[in-house]
Amino acid sequence: MNVGDERSRSLWMDVDVAPNAARLTREITCDTVIIGSGIAGLSTAYELSGQGQKVVVLDRGKIGKGMTARTTAHLSANNDDTFKTMVEKRGAKLAKDFYVSQQAAIDRIDVIQQS
Q1: Mind listing the pLDDT tens digit for each residue in 47-62?
Q2: Which of the residues 53, 56, 87, 95 could staple to 31 if both were Cys, CB 3.0 to 4.6 A apart?
């Protein structure tokens, strides 16, 4: 399903991100190609370019108009199920690793926003 065809509307659906971004019209060379211009793809491109890589981001549609357009943009280190359920199904180590990774991502976003 195309997210733009859904009845409910997110605030982000009406925001054009970089409406004049250039389409790829020629052959180019890069270190990494990112497929998808949502929050995950753009975050990955940001981090890799900060490490000196030449990055190209490709998407079949407009920037941030896929699943990213449906997000509430909330940040949480919790999961959709309880940690008790995660521990029961996956073990304490995985549950802890999940929490630590989610919190690290939130901390990284905070650092980026502060700079």
Answers
A1: 999 999 999 999 998 8
A2: 53
SS3 4: helix
3-state secondary structure of 66: coil
3-state helix, strand, coil in the chain (%, to 5): 45, 5, 45
Our count of domains for the chain comes to: 2
Shared domain for 15 and 66, answered yes or no, is yes
Determine the structural domain holding residue 97 and report its residue range: 75-115
Query: Of 103, 96, 56, 57, which Cα lies nearest the Cα of 77?
Result: 103
Model-level pTM? Answer: 0.76
Higher-scoring residue by pLDDT: 91, 68: 91
Q: Which of 70, 74, 73, 63 is nearest to 9 (CA)?
A: 70
